[in-house]
Design a protein that fits this description.
By secondary structure, the protein is of the alpha+beta class. Helices cover about 35% and strands about 20% of the residues. The strands form 4 sheets. Strands 10, 11, 12, 13, 14, 15, 16, 17 and 18 form a 9-stranded antiparallel sheet that branches. Strands 1, 2, 6, 7, 8, 9 and 19 form a 7-stranded mixed sheet that branches. A hairpin with a 2-residue loop joins strand 7 and strand 8.
Length: about 625
């Protein structure tokens, strides 16, 4: 027998598939990871970077629960920046530029070192289904492999078509063939599918770029990381650069619009509004004279550069002609042109919060198959699908994160409750509890929960407990110790804030926005100065945030607790909404389609009014 029976088969080894395989295996499931190409595990098909606005918070959440994305990023990054430091801490978002080749290699090594993960290189062309339950997969080689559950993470490969100007050909990404068979079978089983599109820019030979004409963008002076575990410190960094388009560039690009598959209608899929192609930006923002571009290195030892912001599906010769009119790129040579890719996805309202499908039990979807875009969003879904696939086959309770617990909770709830009308990308604005869901406290929110289900290691839990004890100790010191005017007024004057005339507690002084904890600790009484060496940057950062924003944090907790009462009101999947004539027609239709699991989820469905929720609450005796 070529294969044993598996607990979980993961189809696809992108960011979603890799995290799904790791989480299920680390929980104890026997996992088979099937991919077309074992050389491209967790490949960064687009921008070689992790994190960013809200996405950085997701990577930290993945890490806090024992996922691999943060560890791999820390080991392979070539630049680190904490974005939005000029704003409040709810907006701070870590971002790292990675070495593309090292990133994929490191992911493969970590998976190979993970007990319970087997690998097989093949294409999955269909599912084995019996009595509305998945029992395995069929492969391109004609094999049938049995399993208790299946996680589909097909990315952009399902009936993928690549577009460059008037040229179109099948492919899941440049250099890889598309996947066929799965969509057709799922549609026969009753699933709804649709089309989406995404794109990627030209890759440029760095030797042909005149960097003297560009604006340098260095990494942070004290680079951080993503993982809460010990990670290598970045001692040197590669710079990124900023360039700008011009009216001349725009005019050149317009000459190819009539050949663009996007404008000619040959692309039917919906594109990402928040990461549009350069031709889409020019068309949509016709009044703008220029658009910012980011010139980003692909790794430590390569001359290849990625031109972020210049995604395009225009003819290759139009792309190159316009590129050479950008200042600094007059002599640019390219490795490959930009292209658009169109692919199948399945509207995510067809899923439960566990990411299990409603139609076929033990079948899970994660990543771009659910209409999302971005490595981080995919990895988060993969982690949760892997966890829940393991828990389901182990006959244990599901693991679901709420909107007040994690950006991952917001992501999944948005997908299955609201659906998608464009590729879904996470933003801080999507989360109503941003002050609770900070990048610095993902371990406080999630590590213990993950440890309880068996995923986060004891080492992670102990690190979190130690960190929390230090935060509590430092908070107590700041609330207890006072400083006199003669000691601290010089610092207050230099910081541009009012002087004090009587002794003040350090905690009270820290409430002033002009002051920061690291500087303030220098004014501790001599007998206490030695204790400051106990606290690392993470402890100092979290303590300062907790003190400065204590009132706001408490308000958000109260709001979350109030709304959580709706989440406690369960709705049965077989509930007949059409029998409640007091509900609006739209509410009956939407509720019957989505079948929310709680009254709270029902309240977030587009088109459901407060009066509809009141009707349901009254009917349920609430």
């Amino acid at each position: 027998m070529l294969f044993e029976n598996y607990d979980v088969i993961v189809v696809g080894a992108g960011h979603a598939g890799s995290e799904a395989a790791a989480s299920a295996a680390n929980l104890g499931s026997k996992v088979l990871l099937i991919t077309m190409n074992l050389q491209t595990i967790a490949q960064m098909s687009c921008n070689p970077a992790m994190g960013g606005i809200a996405k950085g918070q997701i990577v930290r959440e993945i890490d806090a629960m024992g996922g691999y994305s943060g560890i791999v990023t820390d080991k392979t990054m070539i630049q680190f920046r904490m974005l939005n430091k000029s704003k409040g801490p709810a907006m701070w978002s870590p971002r790292a530029q990675s070495d593309r080749v090292m990133f994929s290699n490191e992911w493969r090594q970590m998976l190979e070192m993970t007990t319970n993960v087997d690998f097989f290189q093949d294409t999955v062309v269909g599912l084995l289904v019996k009595d509305k339950r998945v029992i395995g997969v069929k492969t391109g080689m004609g094999l049938e492999i049995n399993s208790k559950s299946v996680v589909l993470t097909n990315g952009t490969f399902l009936n993928g078509i690549i577009h460059i100007g008037e040229k179109s050909f099948g492919g899941g990404r440049m250099g890889d063939k598309a996947s066929t068979g799965i969509t057709e079978q799922l549609v026969e089983l009753g699933f709804r599918s649709d089309r989406m599109k995404t794109g990627t820019p030209v890759r440029i030979d760095g030797r042909s770029i005149n960097f003297e004409k560009l604006i340098e963008q260095r990494g942070d002076d004290e680079p951080g990381g993503f993982s809460y575990l010990e990670h290598p410190k970045l001692k040197q960094q590669r710079s990124c650069w900023i360039a700008y388009t011009s009216l001349k560039v725009h005019e050149t690009l317009r000459t190819g619009f009539h050949l663009s598959p996007m404008f000619s209608g040959r692309i039917e899929g919906i594109g990402p509004r928040y990461c549009p192609s350069i031709e889409d930006k020019i068309d949509r923002f016709a009044g703008k004279d220029s658009h910012q571009l980011f010139v980003e290195p692909e790794g430590w030892n390569t001359i290849e550069y990625y031109l972020n912001g210049f995604s395009s599906s225009l003819p290759d010769y139009v792309q190159v002609k316009a590129l050479r009119q950008i200042e600094g790129f007059e002599n640019a040579k390219i490795f490959r042109p930009g292209y658009a890719i169109e692919y199948d996805y399945f509207p995510p309202e067809q899923l439960f919060h566990t990411l299990e499908t409603k139609l076929i039990s033990n079948l899970y979807f994660a990543g771009q198959i659910n209409g999302t875009t971005g490595y981080e969003e995919a990895a988060a879904q993969g982690l949760m699908a892997g966890i829940n696939a393991h828990l389901k086959v182990s006959e244990k309770d599901p693991f679901i994160l709420g909107r007040a617990e994690a950006y991952i909770g917001v992501l999944i709830d948005d997908l299955i409750t609201k659906g998608v009308d464009e590729p879904y990308r996470m933003f801080t604005s999507r989360a109503e509890y941003r002050i609770l869901l900070r990048q610095d406290n993902a371990d406080a929110r999630l590590t213990e929960k993950s440890f309880q289900i068996g995923l986060a290691s004891k080492e992670r839990l102990e690190l979190f407990v130690t960190k929390q004890e230090k935060i509590d100790s430092l908070m107590e010191t700041l609330r207890r110790v006072s400083v006199d005017p003669g000691t601290v007024n010089g610092y207050l004057e230099a910081a541009g804030t009012s002087l004090i005339t009587t002794k003040q507690k350090l905690a009270n002084l820290l409430l002033r926005p002009q002051l920061n904890l690291i500087e303030l600790l220098k004014f501790l009484p001599p007998e206490l100065l030695t204790i400051t060496s106990e606290y690392d940057k993470a402890v100092l950062e979290s303590t300062e945030i907790l003190l400065k924003y204590e009132g706001y944090i408490e308000k958000e907790k109260e709001m979350a607790d109030k709304l959580a009462r709706l989440e406690d009101v369960k709705l049965k999947q077989e509930f007949d909404y059409h029998s409640l004539q007091s509900l609006s027609y739209e509410a009956r239709e939407k509720l019957s389609e989505i079948k929310p699991s709680t009254l709270g989820q029902a309240s977030r469905i587009s088109g459901i009014s407060p009066s509809d929720i009141s009707v349901l609450a009254i009917y349920l005796g609430r």
